[in-house]
Amino acid sequence: MQKPLRSNWIKRLTHKLQKRSLKDASYSFLFDAPPPNEFVAIDCETTGLDVRRDEIISIAAIPIKNMQLLTSRRLELLVKPSQGPSKESVKVHRLRECDLEEGLDASTAIQQFLKFIGPRPLVGYYTEFDIAMLNKLVYPLLGIRMPNTALDVCNIYYDYKFSQLPPYQQYANADIDLRFISLMTDLELPLRQGHDAFNDAEMAALAFVKLQAIKQS
């Protein structure tokens, strides 16, 4: 019982310190208590996979309330980068430089995104990369990184599959396939054909809801 209490105490202290460092008090709502049983599934497409060098070119966010996806209330943003996407990334997300000409500037996009998500926990597939890319835009604006809790579908799925293994496999560090296509197939969920921010956010949201239902059954 000591570890959860200590973890919560550290989290509260971290949030308190972050709030003190907030450059713009109008964003203090990010530290409010999140609405009960509400989440936001997110995904970003980028010019490449280098967090230091590459830029966000699209953002999708889908509200989840009472384990229902509110796709009609989703946020989809195109962001105009300072340099065009790499040829390799275009093959993945199919967003060319000409497609981004009418995109928002990065500062406007991140402001809209923060106001949309509020203090809600963020859900995604390999969220570490997306959140690192988003924080590149958040930090100059607020002087802090996003305080939102991040829930990675990969981690939740791994824990679910690991709990099903017999003890001898658990101790042997059994390999669990965490590829998106494998995860969705195993959970008997639909795979979206187009690789874009909205489709990926929706698939992550579906996986999250399914895993929560399994956990509670």
Description:
The structure is a single chain. The chain is of the alpha/beta class. It has a single domain (24-216), classed as 2-Layer Sandwich (Nucleotidyltransferase, domain 5). The protein is 46% helix and 14% strand. It has 8 helices and 6 strands; from the N terminus they run αββββααβαβαααα. Strands 1, 2, 3, 4, 5 and 6 form a 6-stranded mixed beta sheet that branches. It is globular.
Q: CATH homologous superfamily name?
A: Ribonuclease H-like superfamily/Ribonuclease H
Report the uncertain regions.
none
State the end-to-end distance.
24 Å
Count of domain modules: 1
SSE series:
HEEEEHHEHEHHHH
Instruction: Report the major sheet.
Output: 6 strands, mixed
Share in β-strands? 5-15%
Number of helices: 8
Structural class, from secondary structure content? alpha/beta
* Rg, nearest Å: 18 Å
